[in-house]
From TrEMBL:
Keywords: Transferase. This is N-acetylneuraminate synthase. One of its GO terms (molecular function) is N-acetylneuraminate synthase activity. One of its GO terms (biological process) is carbohydrate biosynthetic process. The lineage of its organism: Bacteria, Pseudomonadati, Pseudomonadota, Betaproteobacteria, Burkholderiales. Residues 293-349 form the AFP-like domain. Its EC number is 2.5.1.56. The keyword Magnesium does not apply. NCBIfam families: PseI. Gene3D superfamilies: Aldolase class I (3.20.20.70), Antifreeze-like/N-acetylneuraminic acid synthase C-terminal domain (3.90.1210.10). SUPFAM superfamilies: AFP III-like domain, Aldolase. Pfam families: NeuB, SAF.
Amino acid sequence: MTINIGGRLVGREHEPFLIAEMSGNHNQSLDRALEIVDAAAASGAHALKIQTYTADTMTLDIREREFFISDPKSLWKGKSLYELYDEAHTPWDWHAAIFERARGHGMIPFSTPFDDSAVDFLEGLDVAVYKIASFENTDIPLIRKVARTGKPMIISIGMASIAELDQSVRAAREAGCKDLILLKCTSTYPASPENTNVRTIPHMRDLFGCEVGLSDHTMGLGVSVASVAMGATVIEKHFTLDRADGGVDSSFSLEPAEFQALVVETRRAWQGLGGVSYGPTDAEKKSLVFRRSLYITRDLKAGEVLDASSVRAIRPGFGLAPKHLDQVLGRAVKQDVSRGTPLEWDLLA
């Protein structure tokens, strides 16, 4: 299957579609946001993704109980959910400028909407594709709203059971989504390679009959490259100019040079998949001459018998194959033969 996203074809016959996720790494500066767009384009990203919400569309302004992040292991410990989303959100009046800059670089800009108002707003900006975040992958009304746009939809599957995903996929398709991509995702920040389970990717493809990929929150490139070997056709990575600058997602985001390496290595992984193949490829055929073969290793007179001192398996490969060594030992040559002659049957008496 192949999906057209903004004029770019996504599928196993095409190199992986790489998404640079800005998230909140703009640190509330439009200038920095535009620098991130420029750097993502220079790094080879095919698409630039942001998120469309406000603190009020996400949660309530309460600093206690379940609205307060007290987990000592959380990157955002000590903040309320409202404070976190207020800090991380991308102002809606920035969207047009960010999208215009991305399109100017030939990238595909799009966003993750978190409620109906965000979908309506993004429709006005003519986005080519929508993303449903892991935490919203059970929000059936939102999924239906996005599906009714008729645009391709990407859904991250973090935390979702097969039953939950089945409901979400059915809802999307019943509401009109024809082009669906599911991303294997681990909703921890950062995620560990051991907790990523990219072997799920081909199972997702078979189970839901759609394109599949990876939303990768691990550090480094290894998991993303491995996902391509498992059939991922889309990879999303958070992106920042410099982790040292801080930001809500900076600690698990790639810097420009790292993202550029991601582009190169995932392309190599995809190119390396090929198909089931035995025997020399066209590129290898010229190397066949460097196989070992049987050669005369000292000057011989007609009638001399071949022994271990006069014939050996060496490189290059213009003589008989080494498997014939036992057959030729003890046989005589029928003519004078000089050292360095490839052994052929017609030299033997």
